[in-house]
Amino acid sequence: MGWKRLSKTDLVRLAVLLVYLPFSLYFDWQHFIFSERSSYLLYAVCKLVQLFLLYLFLGQAITALRKKRIEDKFRLALLIFAVLLVGLLLLWPGNWVEVDEFSILKHSALVLKVHYNQGLFATAIHIVALMFFFHRGSIVLFQCALASWIYADLIQQCRVITGRKARFISVLLFSPVSLYYLYQPMRTFLFGILLILFLQRYLVLWNCGEKIEFRREILWLNLLVSGLVCIRTEIKFLLVFIRSCWLLSC
Questions:
Q1: Which of 179, 46, 220 is nearest to 121 (CA)?
Q2: What is the pLDDT of residues 83-104, one digit of tens each?
Q3: Is the dihedral of CA 104, 134, 230, 120 positive or negative?
Q4: Chain centroid to CA 132: how far?
């Protein structure tokens, strides 16, 4: 009965993933080293994240092909990704200028161990990126893909709320400083852009709370803050702040 409830798009996505999975597992087995018992758990979590991201992307792609029309947010994300890809190709394989980048790659990602200094998030980003394509440039490429979707969300939210073209946020996102850290395979860029996403969501919630589902947005902000804390523990004060908002809304 459960299969009958799935749409054609869901069935196609699952079929593609089932065909892809054996090749992906063989590929991973050839390149990653399971250095300790916890490596298997870390690998399983990262593989599930990769498959989930593929599932989401396939949903957007199949829907666009079926409707012969690309949704505005997805189209904007693809456009931004194309622009960022040109920059990456010019800088290939990215901005590898510090010791930490190579340390995460060599001593954590390749041997499936959480980095002692950079933490779980940075390690997981490296591992998931390498699952797509086993080259250090794929880490920056994966970061560009994540950035494209977050950029598209930020710009679209600004357009919806203000009715303008979001020029200020676009200048901020494509500033030299942002691009420098975008092409660097470290946690700095994703922490910064997720923090901007949190602040924007919070301001929208504060000013337009009567027009949106307040509790659902509070839950989304909780998840976002939890992710930020995983990246930088110094931001843990936001957990108290956002959960206070949740209590006030109950």
A1: 46
A2: 999 999 998 888 888 777 888 8
A3: negative
A4: 14
